[in-house]
Write a structure and sequence with these properties.
Blueprint (H helix, E strand, L loop, with lengths): L3 E3 L13 H4 L5 E6 L2 E10 L1 H10 L3 E2 L5 H13 L17 E7 L6 E4 L6 E7 L5 E2 L22 E5 L11 E4 L5 E7 L5 H9 L1 E3 L6 E5 L5 E7 L5 E6 L7 E3 L6 E9 L4 E8 L1
Parallel strand pairs: 5-11
Antiparallel strand pairs: 1-7, 2-3, 3-11, 4-11, 5-6, 5-9, 6-7, 7-8, 9-10, 12-13, 13-16, 14-15, 14-17, 17-18
């Protein structure tokens, strides 16, 4: 059973949003699915509290990452999102770029909890500074953090790094000031769009493992690009629509290993498959 940490004394003022359009322009929202859930990358800079309020208004919460698999899936999508790094910088986080996720230690310094909807109940996952420990063996992905850096501390929000900083590399977590204006990731308990779900289930790739050619079963006429991504989130090879011939792509030049094959469709939908290159 998850440990619950009451946050009854936590009062964070944030704007109230009554609809999707009011807290995020649809043109600034990228959606993807993972393990039966939908996620949104919101390319609009907000404080942690405002980002959490927007997430709730959209029917979700700031992402609460519970496994390395989920962390990797989110990180891959962030690296593919063509984010403007200069628009989502935390100066107190080594000057690196970040997105907000749903962790904080606002109620008690060093007691890091998942509370992506900023309500009165949260699940603690970490206790202490960089030399601390995970609570009940829960997943964490800190750099050499947290450290509550600064003359007055106040680094109470959890950022997922998009670029390197002196104490960590992109993809790692850092504690940064809640007032930073950052992009953010929203998690939903379920699939937002039936269209996305249909794309994921209707599009199949074979053979798997593959040695030279990978074939796509499904409607490829709306495919705009296919990107092969390694397990640390690097885009290794990109095929444009014109390079997808006879519903197939040639992966002979890829080194043997595990890849994520992301198929992006016109209209913004995408489907990702795990594939092994022999």
């Amino acid at each position: 059973m998850k440990k619950k940490t009451p946050l009854l004394l936590l009062f964070i003022m944030a704007p109230l949003f009554t609809g999707f359009a009011q807290c995020a322009n649809p043109n600034n929202v990228l959606t993807f699915t993972h393990n039966g859930k939908s996620y949104e990358i919101i390319k609009e800079a907000k404080t942690w509290a405002d980002a959490a309020a927007c997430a709730v208004a959209r029917g979700g919460y700031l992402a609460e990452i519970g496994t390395a698999y989920e962390q990797n899936a989110i990180n891959i999508q962030l690296q593919l999102a063509n984010l403007t790094m200069a628009a989502t910088v935390a100066p107190d986080g080594g000057g690196a770029s970040y997105v907000w996720i749903g962790g904080n230690d606002m109620a008690s310094e060093g007691a890091w909890v998942w509370n992506g909807n900023n309500d009165a109940v949260a699940n603690q996952f970490w206790q202490g500074t960089a030399s601390g420990q995970a609570v009940d063996g829960r997943y964490t992905n800190w750099g050499n953090e947290p450290d509550n850096w600064g003359p007055n501390g106040g680094q109470d929000g959890l950022g997922l790094a998009l670029t390197n900083w002196p104490l960590g590399t992109k993809g790692k977590w850092n504690d940064v000031n809640l007032s930073n204006q950052l992009f953010f990731v929203v998690e939903h308990n379920g699939i937002l769009s039936t269209k996305d779900q249909e794309l994921t289930t209707a599009t199949m790739v074979y053979p798997n493992p593959a040695e030279d050619m990978v074939y796509i079963q499904g409607n490829t006429s709306a495919l705009s690009t296919i990107t092969f991504i390694n397990t640390i989130g690097q885009a290794i090879k990109v095929f444009s629509h014109s390079q997808i011939t006879n519903n197939s792509v040639n992966i002979t030049t890829l080194l043997p290993g595990v890849y994520f094959m992301q198929m992006d469709f016109e209209g913004g939908e995408s489907s990702t498959k795990k594939i092994i290159k022999k």
